[in-house]
Amino acid sequence: MKKSDLAVLLLLGALWGASFLFMRMGAGQFGSMALAGMRAIGAAICSLPLLASRKRIAELRANWWPVTLIGLSNSALPFVLFSYAAQSLPSGLSAIFDAIAPLLVAASGWLWLGEKLDASRASGLVIGLTGVVWLIGGSMGFGHGGSSTGWAMAACVGANVCYTFGAHYSQRRMRTVTPLTVAIGSQFAAAAMLLPFTIWMWPAKMPGMPSWVAMFGLAAGCTSLAYVLFYRLLARVGSATAMAVLYLIPVFGVIWGAAFLRESVTLAMAGGCAVILLGVALTTGMLRPRGVTRNWGSIEEVP
């Protein structure tokens, strides 16, 4: 990997990790629905120049229904669920939960789609899910307890279930469509779906400047710019290397939360994060025992 590609990979991890910081900053005043809607609408507006292509417009017209479904599962619903979780959970903890999507993709593919798991991937799945249980139980016992926290954790898991559906659906239905077209179209679809709810649930009191800054950061940086960087990186280094960003998101999420919001990093968070990432490394093939052939998969998601 060239130094420039490595820099883009780190920047992408930093941007997606920062999305949890921005959601934590903005969800309290905007509310989960309004923040998610403004994020999707802002990202769609920022992506308008990328639509200046007849090929992309033609692809969107021909595939408007699958793109809409991906916009719902990969953007609209996860944006709302993670924004809801941000009202109760530390940003670093939400970022760690985001790392379970590859585990859910592998588990659902094995259970319902007949995909095979070798011993290495199966052990990674068990290790990763054990880390999730450890993280949930440990977080409850380290000062983050309460019914609201339980629902927030469930929302994080629900967001990753949405990503799982989006990953399988994209892999089967969108192979012939340019990935950047899917990314742009899904943001416009998410914006259209969330617009009426954003208007209906707009906060009675206008959010303060820090919340607006967080919202703009989410829309422009963590969504629109991050999509462009990700798909350009895919084109340059391939999906196997680009997927390494999944390991950077929770790390940066914890760093930003500790640096800007003074969030504490508990033993449960550190241990759960390490166990989950080990499981993800084995499940996705990033870490393979000697003598085992790598079989890379692709997971398209945006926190």
TrEMBL record:
<dbReference type="InterPro" id="IPR037185">
    <property type="entry name" value="EmrE-like"/>
</dbReference>
<dbReference type="Pfam" id="PF00892">
    <property type="entry name" value="EamA"/>
</dbReference>
<protein>
    <submittedName>
        <fullName>DMT family transporter</fullName>
    </submittedName>
</protein>
<feature type="transmembrane region" description="Helical">
    <location>
        <begin position="30"/>
        <end position="52"/>
    </location>
</feature>
<feature type="transmembrane region" description="Helical">
    <location>
        <begin position="242"/>
        <end position="261"/>
    </location>
</feature>
<feature type="transmembrane region" description="Helical">
    <location>
        <begin position="180"/>
        <end position="203"/>
    </location>
</feature>
<keyword id="KW-0472">Membrane</keyword>
<feature type="transmembrane region" description="Helical">
    <location>
        <begin position="149"/>
        <end position="168"/>
    </location>
</feature>
<feature type="domain" description="EamA">
    <location>
        <begin position="8"/>
        <end position="135"/>
    </location>
</feature>
<dbReference type="InterPro" id="IPR050638">
    <property type="entry name" value="AA-Vitamin_Transporters"/>
</dbReference>
<feature type="transmembrane region" description="Helical">
    <location>
        <begin position="64"/>
        <end position="86"/>
    </location>
</feature>
<feature type="transmembrane region" description="Helical">
    <location>
        <begin position="209"/>
        <end position="230"/>
    </location>
</feature>
<dbReference type="InterPro" id="IPR000620">
    <property type="entry name" value="EamA_dom"/>
</dbReference>
<feature type="transmembrane region" description="Helical">
    <location>
        <begin position="267"/>
        <end position="287"/>
    </location>
</feature>
<keyword id="KW-1133">Transmembrane helix</keyword>
<feature type="transmembrane region" description="Helical">
    <location>
        <begin position="92"/>
        <end position="113"/>
    </location>
</feature>
<feature type="domain" description="EamA">
    <location>
        <begin position="151"/>
        <end position="284"/>
    </location>
</feature>
<keyword id="KW-0812">Transmembrane</keyword>
<feature type="transmembrane region" description="Helical">
    <location>
        <begin position="125"/>
        <end position="143"/>
    </location>
</feature>
